[in-house]
Amino acid sequence: MSEGVFEEFDPVPDADAGVSVGPDYFIEKDGERYAGGHLLVDFWGASNLTDPEAIVNALKAAATAANATILHSYMHQFGEGGGVSGVVVLAESHISIHTWPERDFAAIDVFMCGKCNPHQSLPILMETFQPQTVDLSEQRRGRVK
Amino acid sequence: MSEGVFEEFDPVPDADAGVSVGPDYFIEKDGERYAGGHLLVDFWGASNLTDPEAIVNALKAAATAANATILHSYMHQFGEGGGVSGVVVLAESHISIHTWPERDFAAIDVFMCGKCNPHQSLPILMETFQPQTVDLSEQRRGRVK
Predict the structure, then answer these.
(1) What CA–CA distance (Å, rounded) separates B144 from B94?
(2) Which pTM does this prediction carry?
(3) Catalytic residue among B93, B94, B116, B119, which?
(4) Cβ–Cβ below 8 Å for A142 and B40
(5) A-chain residues within 8 Å CB-CB of B109?
(6) Cα torsion A103, A104, A105, A108: sign
(7) Residue A13 reports pLDDT greater than 50
């Protein structure tokens, strides 16, 4: 990924500004109460999509960067040199990845509850997979209405 | 969940109508090419949120209902009687769940690629967790632009 894209794309838009966390780990932010932020991250023009050990290590590092607690990890590879499917399960939810090396594409999701900010996982994921373009969306899960 | 809610909520809106799948397992539907459908499912007023074995079995049954292939499963419980966090990793992507029994809330996501339709997992999840209300959103992952 070019540095230009890094400059345009701010993976940690507001860090922990204005966030408070209740005893049930639900978040209070911007006048809304919800369980956590769920990022759906599509990486195109991505690299390093076929090494299951490197990928699981990247997901663990991405979790740790957001101060999440890792409970379990698993990574499956679809034949030598093929794509992978896997997950890191966290005390605060999960990070998953599915890669299509034949399309230079990876579909990642980062769901984190409580005081963890899933945006803080993105720099390590971007550094690892070097995407040329990123489609990112965020949903607040468990919004109390 | 009441039968009334079941009647209002159609978990399998269009099944496999108009879907074709390429050799890279990307889907062609409605003139769009994409990797798969990713459902974010919030269950409120839900039951049966604390038995890890029953929950992992429900997730496996939900995967099988969509003709997905299970690669791996994992379920962690946060203390006896507490919530769970876990995942079933599929050849076609994954189903994850995180439960907050103290709020009668479960956050589930169902991501399935290729010919599997994630909506076909929903009836079993709804039957298992009996939600009073459902917040459902779907994103098409890996949309080719």
Answers:
(1) 21
(2) 0.88
(3) B93
(4) no
(5) 38, 109, 111
(6) positive
(7) yes
